[in-house]
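Build the 3D complex.
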Amino acid sequence: MKANSTTSVSVRGLALSYGAVQVLKALDLDIADGEFLVLLGPSGCGKSTLLNCIAGLLEPSHGQVFIKGKNVTWEEPKDRGIGMVFQSYALYPQMTVERNLSFGLRVSGLAKDEIEKRVKRVGDMLQLGDLLQRKPSALSGGQRQRVAIGRALVREVDVFLFDEPLSNLDAKLRAELRVEIKRLHQRLANTMIYVTHDQIEAMTLADRIAVMKGGTIQQLDAPQTIYNKPKNLYVAGFIGSPSMNFLKGKIEGAGAKAVFHLGGQKIPLKDYVPDAPLKAGAAVLGVRPEHIQLDMAATKANSDAYKAVVDLVEPMGSDSLVWLKIDDTLFSARVESNQHFDPGQKVDVRFRINLASVFDEATGDRL
Amino acid sequence: MSHTTAIGIVPTGPKPKKLISVERVIVYSVLLLCAVFFLFPLYIMVITSLKDIEAIRSGNIFIPTMTPTFSAWGKAWNSACTGLYCEGIKVGFWNSVRITFPSTIVSIAIASITGYSLANWPFKFSEAFFTVLLVSSFIPYVVMLYPLVLITRWLGIYSTLPAVVLVHTIFGLPILTLLFRNYFASLPQELFKAARVDGAGYWRIFFQVFVPMSAPIFTVAVILQITGIWNDFLFGVIYAGPTNYPMTVQLNNIVNSVQGGKEYNVDMAATILTGIVPLAIYFFSGKYFVRGIAAGAVKG
Amino acid sequence: MDRPNPLFRNLSSKIASLPMMLIVLGVFVGGTAWTVLFSFTNIRILPLFTPREWINGYVGLANYDRLFKTDRWMDCPGLTKIGTEAWQWKCAGALPNVVTYAVLSIILSISIGFLLAVFMDQKIRMEGVFRTIYLYPFALSFIVTGHVWAWILSPEYGLQAAVRQLGWTSFSFGWIADRQMVMYAIVIAGIWQGSGFVMALMLAGLRGIDEEIWKAAKIDGISTWRTYLQIVLPMMKPVMVTTFVIVASGAVRIYDLVVAITDGGPGISSDVPTRYIYQNFSANLGQSLAASTCMLVAMAFILIPWIRMEFGKKG
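Done.
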C-alpha cells in the first residue's frame, strides 16, 4: 500500500445475506487511490458478491460503500464512477466492437466527437484498431476480453472492477492478458479491484491481496507478506503451489527457548520471528517445500538436521518434489532437479525456521 | 452530492423502496389481466355445464347459476346424441383410450431404438437417414393424407382401429426419434464405450445401460404422444371409421347434432370431459409437460 | 482370418432401424413424392401407381390452374367497386383465409408471448401459478378450444347477449357470424390456445441470456426497457426464429379449430386449405393433391429462416 495515499474505495460494515445464508459478514475494506487490489478465494467465498456490491449490482443488507469519498450505497451503478469487466466478456453480441465500446456513451448522450475520440484512444491503447468493425463472434477469446476491458476504459472512470476476467481463457492467453492488464495499470494508475481464484494472477498483479473465506477477509496484505507470513492456516494452505507442509506437533518451552516437538525429534524455534509470544501447547509448523533443505547422506550429526525417509519423488522439470516421512508425518521438499533421491533413502532434513510459520493448532492463527 | 441525502439520512444498507412502485403495479396488473383472459373460457365451460337448459336460455353467460346441477355431465357422458346413436361421449372416451395406448407404446418403442442406433451405432447411411428424418418431421401431414388412405386400404385396415393406430405411430416417429437421438447423444459416450469394452452388445447396452438412465426422456415422450394423440381430430375422422371415432370427433358430433334442440350445458360438459385427460397430465407432470411440448415443437 | 463383411457390421443396429427406414422411405418420402407427382395428372379416386399411367394421365399444371380459379380456394379481385361510389377490398377463399390467420397469429402470439415473458421475468411472486394459467390452454385440443370459444362468441347466448343484457343494447360482437370478421374470431381462439406456449419458449430464451450482459448494461447505464429492446431482443434471434417456425407451421395446418368454431362458415367464408383438401378427396382429387403440394411449398418457405440460421452459421 502506497504511503499517504488517499482512499479511493472503501467499504464499511458491508453485509449481505439471503435468508439465513450470510454471504458477506460485516466487511471493512479501504482501497487506496491507484491501488491494485485482488480479492482472492475459492468459489463461494463471497469475493464476487463483494465486487458486485461495490459496483451496485447487488444490494447489501447492511453497511455502506464509498467511492472517491462519496457515499454511493444507494447510487445506480452508472453513477458510481466505475467500469467493470466480466468473466464471460458480456459483450453485446449483435453490435460491432465500435458499437460495444460506444453504446453506453451514446445512451448517456455524450457528444459524438467526444465519443469518437475516446473510442479511438482506447482502440489504440488496446490495439483494437483493426477489429472495430467486427462483431464479437468474429473475435478470439483474448480479443473479446480486450474489447470488454476497452468498454470499461471508454467510461474514463476512476475505478475498474474485474470479475474473474481471465477465467474463460486458455493458459497461454491468460498469461498474455495478465501482463497486459498489469501494464495497463502501470500506465493508467487507476484503482483496480480484481476478483480471481487464481493465486498466480493474484500474486503477479496485486499491490495488496485480500484472501477471503466464508464472507470474511482472512488477510489483507502485500503478496509477499501473504506468502511469507500467512496469518492463519487457511491462508497458508490456500497460497502457494505446491502447498505448504503442515507438521502437527507441540511446542515446549516459551519465548526464545521454545522447541517444536515433531514425533521424537525436536526443532528449536530460536530463529522464528513470532507474531505473538510462543507458548507451550499443540501447534502446527508450516514450512513451504522450498524452505526445506535435504542432505543426501545422513552421516553428520547436525544439531539442526532431522532424519527422514524418502517416500516418493515427483520430477517437475525445473525442480523435483521429494515426499518425505518423519515417523508418520508426510511432507514435501523442493529440490533442484539435478539432485537424485530414491524411495527408501534416508536423508537429513533442515527446516529454514526463519521462513516458516507456526500456528496455534486450536485457533489456526499464526503465532 | 455529500455523504448524506437531502433530508439528512446517511445511505446505508439496502436502498429504501416505495411500498408500491408504479412499475410493479403495471407488471402485476398486466399479468393478472392476462390470467383472467386465459382462465375466462375455463370458467365459462364450468359454469355453463352446471346450469340447466332453462338457466342458459334466460340467464347470462357470465353468471353462474344458483342451483348447480351435474345432470348435464351425466347426459354428456351417457346419453348425448352423436348423430346416429345416443350413447354419450363415453364411447369416444374408450375409443380414444384404445387408440392412444397402442400408438404411444409402439411409436416410443420404435423411436427409442432407432434414436439409439443413430446416436451410438452409426452405419453407412445413418447421417443421410437422419437428415431425411429431420426434413420428414416438417412435412405437413396433409401431404400424406391420401397416400395413407391408399396404404391402409392396400393393407385392408382402412376405417378400422389398426389404421388410426398405424397413422398415429407413423406421424409420431420422426420427432420422437430426433428426441431420443439427441438425448442418447448427450449421455456421456464413455458409458457406452465402457459397456462395449465389458462385452455388452447392442440390445444389452440399450436395455441395461441406456433405458434405466432415460426415465426423463421416456416421460417426455409419453406426455408428448398421449396429449398429441388424445387431442387429434383429423386422423380420427379419416382413418378410424365411425365405430372407432375418438373422443374429439364424438365431441364435435355431439355439439353439431341437431336432434332435439341445442343443449349448451351438455356440450360444455362434454367439452370439459374431452379436455380433462390432457389437462390432468398437464397439471401433474409440470415441468415434463413443458419439456415435452417444447421437444415436440423445437427441433434439433 | 477373413475380413468381416461390412454389410454385417453393426447388424443389430441396421435391423433395428429397418422399420423406421421403411416408414420414412415408404410414407414420408414415398407419400410426399406420390402426392406431388400425381398433382400433375388427371387422377380420379382410383389410384394409379405405375409410371405409364402417370405419363398417360399427365396434364401439366392443369390442376393448379383450376385450383387457383376456384373461388373456394382463392377469390381475390382486390379492390372491388360495390354500388356506385363505394369500394371494398375483397379477397376470400381458403388460401387468403389461412394467410390472414397465419400472419395475425404469428404477429400477435409472438408479441404477446414476448411481452408476457418479459413481465414474467421481473422477479414476480407466484411465477409458477401464472405460468400454469398461461400454458394450460396449450394442453387442450383445438376441438375443445374451438367449442368453448364458439359458445363464448355465439351472438345468441354469448358475450354479445350477455353485454346487451347488462344494458348496452347496441353492443355488437357477432364476429363468428360475420363473413368479414369470422377469421379474426378464429384468431382470438388460436391466440388463447398458443400464446402461453410462446411465452414459455421466450421465457426460456430470456433466462438463457448471460446474467453478465445485464450487469454490463447496468454499468453502462442502459435502462431496462432499452436493454430488452436493443440488447436482449436481438440476442433472442434463435428463439424468435424457432418460435416463428413453430407458430407459422402450426398456423398453415389450421383445421380442427375452424371445424369446431364455424366448420368453415358462414357459408365457406372461413374455409382453410386443410379442410378444402380433405373435402375434395372424392370429388376433385387432382385439385386436392395440387393444394397439398402448395402447402408443402408454403412449409418450405416457412423453413427458410430456420435453415439459414441452422446451416448458415457454419459459413
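The mean pLDDT of chain B is 86.
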